[in-house]
Design goal:
Blueprint: H1 2-16, E1 24-30, H2 55-75, E2 82-87, E3 93-98, H3 100-107, E4 112-117, E5 121-123, H4 128-131, H5 134-140, E6 152-157, E7 200-205, H6 208-213, H7 231-240, E8 245-249, E9 252-257, E10 265-270, H8 279-292, E11 296-299, E12 301-303, H9 316-326, E13 330-334, E14 353-358, E15 365-370, E16 375-379, E17 395-399, H10 412-416, H11 429-432, E18 436-440, H12 443-447, H13 452-462, E19 466-470, E20 489-492, H14 495-508, E21 509-511, E22 517-520, E23 523-526, E24 540-541, E25 566-569, E26 573-576, E27 592-595, H15 598-615, H16 621-630, E28 643-645, E29 652-654, H17 657-660, H18 667-671, E30 675-676, H19 681-690, H20 696-703, E31 722-728, E32 730-739, E33 745-752, E34 757-762, E35 765-768, E36 773-782, E37 790-798, E38 803-814
Parallel strand pairs: 6-10, 6-11, 7-10, 11-13, 13-14, 14-25, 17-18, 18-19, 19-20, 24-28, 31-38
Antiparallel strand pairs: 1-3, 1-4, 2-3, 5-12, 8-9, 15-16, 15-23, 17-23, 21-22, 26-27, 28-29, 30-32, 32-36, 33-35, 33-37, 34-36, 37-38
Helix pairs in contact: 7-15, 8-9
Length: 817
């Protein structure tokens, strides 16, 4: 069997390079309705879900698949292509593997609406529930055992670790849940059928794109929903992991982990593999997730770069998310990890919620204590070198490059990289054993060939007492995140601290005329670094979190949509992990990991959205997104405006909506927002058709929507924010709010105007009945032209204590029209 597979693989490789052309995957959007919208005219309310298991749906699915095959056969040479996927539920199209010369035959084919080359995609807790006030929300939901009940969250990621206690079925609770969800459990290596246990209600994997693009590694690219990486498990447990799961790492108890919505169910769609992630697999996963009927779709993954020669809003990835929204699924998307540069968001569209990342007030302080009493703050989840009781145990301090073996015949790489502690054989064991060894960030770490895992291995083999991994003035400061070290260790990321350490070391060290050490006089100890402190300012926008403004094309022309949408904890988040940890050997064997990224922020919002959907089951995706936005806070725990990390690692600056969107999510407030701004599919089509220099035929071709009544400006899309990228003189912006509470309420408007702009709201006050709608007309006038965006806020304060906030991001360029 293995020999046959190898022969088939060889044949495949030969075919790929036929005629001197390498095959690629292409995504082709075709004319004709997909399953979800074939009867859209008979659906009374947008988002009503059709039964995918009905005979009519199954028959239409077969019809579409047959039409895809016939279409490809009629245009492409036999044997020149492979159909990778038929997209049928929310989009009608195919993913085809063929050569550039063959794909040219489809560009002007009668049924082709859009053609795009496949792209690579990448992946973008014990305390964050308390930080966000989630327990108060659980109380309103009937306790943690009921929060999220009846809601299914779909996760498109690297899979899931089904044996983790965060995903165990709780037999004391009801296993049934409401809704029209109908998934399936695809078994495979490390993922038996029993993995779908009532908590995990569905699990599938998508690998055709990955397998077509590269040769997968059988030892880690596991063809089942099993998570060999850890990322997918981390994301899923953050959103909906079981309540109160003990977090134990290296024998130390770090607290109890709980997802935001512990009773929501999990639907897994594995589309990212350690070797590769392809857009075709992700799109197939989106199509299936919406077909299955997930309520919320979590995307902590996304394309590595914007689409070529297309509007950011009209790539196939964005069109799939628009179709998911039209089908009633709320899409939560990571904003990206390319900050702090402006124009770095990868979440563009107003129909998906883009999530930025922030710190919480929890830190894990660690300290290197030198023999002269100097204390150097650092990072590292490790035990101390201390002795019994409170006594500090000092040990010999050794600079790694001073401990290299003399007259060694080791390879030059081992000698040149000795200061990075990568090779145990480079050192004199008698010198480093029982010592605190200083390992330095140098060329190997700068170019990515050296690893902390190798330092840990060196420390273990040579029995270091501890190690300090310090910054190198030649390469500057580095960013350090807490890592659970099995041996006492600390990372010192600031070069100024390194200089202080080395100054002490050199004063205490005796050398001969040749510069060789004859006596190590320096001493050092490492304090306990595994106990949390809760004294910091928070939230602070993470340095890595991508920033706005949103943009419309590769030239990064800004557009009238606020991105990111919302801020959530994404820095140093404890959550479930996969012990295989094939991409992070340093975390191998661990069931929990402390991770950072907008990937970690996104599931916080997904869990909050699940509780809102549970509390308000009839709400549409845009209503949920509005409630999350208008109730957010723009102030930190010190009562001051939210700050952000910038390019300077040690200086904070005041953030703005392009860093945090509407602000930090307020789960309790989002359950009762008072008013919501609602937008549907036709509104998004009108928005697209209103974009400058956009041909309505392009919009119709890409989305199937018809440009009917256009907005005066794209800024008229009924979002819970207002962004104007080019304000000349004056503009009137239109909004409509709906009262989602059970009582009539009177609202009074107030404005914090952006610099250089006056803002007037009509009506300035209004009374609105339950389920009533009120139109708002907001006039902006430029009083001073500026060379950048300026920010403000509209606040609607209700007589029943509801407060509705709407961020303003305006670029005033001229006082005259």
């Amino acid at each position: 069997m293995i020999l046959v597979q190898k022969n088939l693989l060889l044949l495949f490789v030969l075919l790929v390079s036929c005629n001197g052309e390498d095959k690629k995957i292409y995504l082709v959007l075709l004319e004709g309705d997909p399953i979800a919208f074939q009867h859209v005219k008979t659906i009374s309310q947008e988002g009503t879900k059709l039964d995918p298991n009905s005979e009519a749906s199954k028959a239409y699915a077969n019809e579409l698949t047959k039409s895809h095959d016939e279409f490809l056969q009629s245009y492409l040479e036999r044997g020149s292509y492979d159909k990778i996927y038929s997209f049928k539920h929310i989009i009608n199209g195919v993913a085809v593997h063929t050569t550039p010369s063959q794909i040219k035959k489809l560009k002007n084919a009668a049924r082709v609406k859009l053609l795009e080359e496949d792209r690579r995609v990448k992946q973008m807790t014990t305390y964050s529930p308390q930080f966000l006030g989630i327990p108060a929300v659980w109380t309103q939901q009937g306790g943690d055992r009921n929060a999220g009940e009846g809601i299914v969250i779909g996760f498109i990621d690297s899979g899931i670790n089904p044996d983790h206690p965060s995903f165990a079925y709780d037999p004391t609770t009801n296993n049934s849940f409401t809704g029209n969800f109908s998934g399936a459990c695809e078994e495979g290596p490390l993922f038996p059928q029993t993995s779908c246990n009532g908590k995990i209600v569905s699990a599938r994997f998508f690998s055709a794109g990955a397998q077509t693009t590269t040769t997968l590694n059988d030892s880690m690219d596991i063809l089942s929903p099993f998570d060999a990486v850890g990322h997918g498990s981390h994301v899923a447990s953050t959103a909906t992991g079981n309540f109160g799961v003990p977090v134990v790492v290296n024998g130390l108890y770090y607290g109890r982990a709980s997802g935001m919505a512990p009773r929501a169910r999990i639907a897994v769609y594995k589309a990212i593999y350690p070797s590769i992630g392809t857009l075709s697999d992700v799109l197939a996963a989106i199509d299936q997730a919406v077909l299955d009927g997930v309520d919320i779709l979590t995307l902590s993954v996304g394309p590595e770069e914007p689409p070529e020669d297309k509007l950011t809003f009209l790539s196939l990835f964005e069109i799939f998310m628009l179709a998911a929204h039209k089908a009633g699924t709320l899409v939560i998307q990571a904003a990206g990890n390319e900050g702090p540069s402006p124009y770095s968001v990868i979440s563009y569209s107003p129909w998906a919620v883009g999530v930025a990342s922030c710190d919480t007030d929890r830190t894990y302080p660690a300290t290197l204590i030198l023999g002269n009493g100097l204390k150097i703050a650092g990072v590292g989840l490790s035990g101390a070198t201390a002795g019994d009781g409170l006594m500090i145990q000092y040990n010999k301090l050794v600079l790694a490059k001073d401990a290299i073996k003399i007259n060694t015949t080791l390879p030059r790489i081992a000698i040149n990289n000795a200061e990075e502690c990568q090779y145990p054989e480079a050192f004199d064991p008698l010198v480093v054993q029982g010592s605190v060894v200083i390992c330095t960030f140098s060329a190997g770490f700068y170019n990515g060939t050296s690893t902390l895992t190798a330092i840990i291995q060196t420390a273990r083999v040579l029995r270091f007492k501890a190690f300090a991994f310090v910054a190198n003035p030649t390469y500057g400061d580095f960013i350090a995140e807490p890592i659970p070290f099995a041996t006492p260790a600390i990372m010192i990321p600031a070069t100024t601290d390194t200089q202080n350490i080395l100054q002490y070391y050199e004063k205490a060290t005796v050398r001969d005329a040749n510069g060789l050490v004859v006596r190590y006089g320096g001493r050092a100890a490492i304090s306990e670094g595994r106990y949390a402190s809760y004294k910091g300012r928070a939230p602070i926008v993470s340095r890595f979190s991508s920033r706005g403004p949103d943009y419309i094309d590769q030239s990064k022309s800004p557009t009238d949509v606020l991105k990111p949408d919302i801020l959530a904890p994404g820095h140093q988040i404890w959550a479930a992990w996969s012990p295989m940890s094939v991409l992070d050997p340093i975390l191998s064997g661990y069931n929990f990991a402390l991770m950072s990224g907008t990937s970690m922020a996104t599931p916080h919002i997904a869990g909050v959205a699940a509780m809102i959907k549970q509390y308000n089951p009839s709400w549409t995706p845009s209503m949920i997104a509005s409630a999350i936005s208008t109730t957010a806070s723009t102030y930190d725990n010190l009562g001051e405006p939210i700050m952000a990390h910038g390019f300077d690692l040690y200086t904070l600056h005041t953030s703005a909506p392009f860093g945090f969107g509407a602000g930090l999510v307020n789960p309790s407030g989002a359950l009762h927002p008072g008013l919501v701004f609602s937008a549907g599919y036709e509104d998004y089509i009108s928005f697209l058709c209103s974009l400058p220099n956009v041909d309505s035929r392009i919009v119709k071709t890409a989305t199937g929507g018809i440009c009917g009544q256009l907005f005066e400006n794209p800024s008229d899309l009924n979002l819970p924010s207002i962004t104007i990228t080019s304000l000349n003189g004056s503009r009137i912006v239109h909004r409509a709010v709906t009262n989602v509470e059970s009582k009539a309420e009177t609202y009074l408007s107030a404005v914090l105007p952006p610099k250089g702009v006056t803002v007037n709201i009509e009506p300035s006050w209004f009374t609105i009945a339950p389920q009533g709608t009120q139109d708002l007309h907001i006039t902006f006038n430029v009083t001073q032209a500026l060379d950048d965006f300026t920010f403000g806020e509209i606040v609607l304060t209700g007589s029943l204590n509801h407060v509705v906030k709407m961020p303003l991001s305006i670029f005033p360029i001229s006082t005259k029209m």
